[in-house]
Amino acid sequence: MKINWKLFAPLIVWLIIYLIPVPPGLKANQWHYFAIFAGVICGLILESMPVGAVGLIGLTIAAVSGYVEPDPNKALKWALSGFSEATVWLIVGAFIFAIGYRKSGLGKRIALLLVRALGSTTLGLGYAVMLSDLVLAPATPSNTARSGGTIYPIISNIPALYGSAPGPTAGKIGSYIMWTAFATTAVTSSLFFTALAPNGAAMAIAKKTVNVEVNWSQWFIGFAPLGIALLILVPFLSYLICRPTIKRSPEVVTWAAGELDKMGPLSRNERWMFALVVLAMFLWITGSNPNISLPLVGSNYINPTMVVLVVISLLLITRVVDFSDIVAEKSAWEVFFYFTSLLTLASGLNEIGFIKWVAVMFATPLEGTSPTFALIMLVALFFWIHYFFSSITSHAAAVLPVVLAVGTSVSGVSVPLLTMLCCYSLGLMGVISPYATGPAPMYYGSGYIGKSAFWLYGWLFGLLYFLGLIFVVRPWLEMI
């Protein structure tokens, strides 16, 4: 029987760290807890088994070992604490929105309408692809579901209309369309709090570690100057870099019109899905504004997670989504166990004092430097270290607490500013490699973008996105 080395790698990582003598300044329980955490992160990166299982196993071992809470009853309470985290339910609930998009057909219709409207030229087609992702992003928390499950299946039909296939003819139009779609979803994932599941996880970590919290509209306003500029630039820059040989694409308009004709008029479920998504966005934006009075609500505030539960209930009542669809949504429940485990484990590092020790150790080289330099170095570390991760969530869980703790230890560094720059980078960093985010392997494996070209484009766009964070978002956040 073939032995899967990935299954044993996390155990080896755990054992090696466990056997290393406890570093000065730490207690045995702190170091041994870190060994478990490192093993879990290794398992997540290598995908030794389903990610939900990796997190649950690591959490169970940590609780049984009593590293955080020696008392068994308190240890159990600690292990289960993440399951009541509102942010996790927000993420899982929003996944159910994706079921509604998919099952009602509204997601496909929106993309086709934009292609029909803007697809007469190749550049216009690029902007149609961008707008398709932009429209779906606020209520689709998975860029894999949004870009990989909705956008990609539609745009993959387009290159063949022009004799553009993977390989020598990919450059006709296929490379441009695929890269534009991929680069766009990285931007929309950072523009909206609800466009990428790890955004919520990262903010939950930030709240637990440095008590920084923002609402949906604050998140959007903070990133909008860069996000909007990039959405305008990405199709054009992709056009310059990919250099498609076909400049006009009138046939795609006819194709999209034909697909829309096949779909017919708006169905009942599409109308309901559209209305409920608009309702959710309205409540997310206005529900935390004290100056707006909400009807049928006992106060001027409605929790974002409660919004999701209300809309899911309405989806069930209107039969846009059946409860069996929710039960069968494997990815949503895997995310549930995945995020709860990671959030609890990450918060445990802070609770036992390990993060404080790391902060003191790593802050030393930054002492004496300007706060701005220290801030930029910490954001750069957080962004570019993603080359070593295949999961944005595991990256956030492993690195964000350390970076925030270091920032807290450096005099003059604005921790809220550091927090938001790191959180905003989560979507953007997905562009840098063929494994950096969920839809990346799909576009990489399409064959339309060469292997070396994918790495080069990823580095170029990653550099652009990073510089945008530093020179656009940073001064903007300092002003508002």
Polypeptide structure, described:
With 480 residues, the protein is an all-alpha fold. Among the domains are: 1-84; 87-328, no CATH class. It is built from 22 helices and no strands. It is globular. The chain starts with a helix and ends with a helix. The model has no long low-confidence stretch (mean pLDDT 87).
Notable characteristics:
single chain; 480 residues; mainly alpha
Briefly, what is this?
By secondary structure, the chain is mainly alpha-helical. The protein contains 22 helices and no strands.
Describe the secondary-structure layout.
Elements (H helix, E strand, L loop, with lengths): L4 H15 L8 H19 L4 H15 L6 H9 L5 H19 L1 H13 L3 H15 L6 H13 L18 H18 L5 H14 L5 H27 L7 H14 L4 H19 L17 H14 L5 H6 L1 H22 L2 H10 L7 H14 L7 H18 L5 H14 L11 H6 L5 H29 L1
Helix pairs in contact: 1-2, 2-3, 3-4, 3-16, 5-10, 5-13, 5-14, 5-16, 6-7, 6-8, 6-12, 7-8, 7-9, 7-11, 8-9, 9-11, 9-20, 10-16, 10-19, 10-20, 11-22, 13-14, 16-19, 17-19, 18-19, 18-20, 19-20, 20-22
Structural class: mainly alpha
Q: Which series of helices and strands comes N to C?
A: HHHHHHHHHHHHHHHHHHHHHH
Contiguous helical run count: 22
Q: Describe the biggest sheet?
A: none
Q: How much β-strand is present in the residues?
A: under 5%
In helices, the fraction of residues equals over 70%
The overall pLDDT, averaged over residues, is 87
- Rg for CA atoms: 23 Å
Q: Unreliable stretches, pLDDT < 50, 5 or more residues?
A: none
Give the number of DSSP strands. 0
Distance between the termini: 61 Å
Name the shape in a single word.
globular
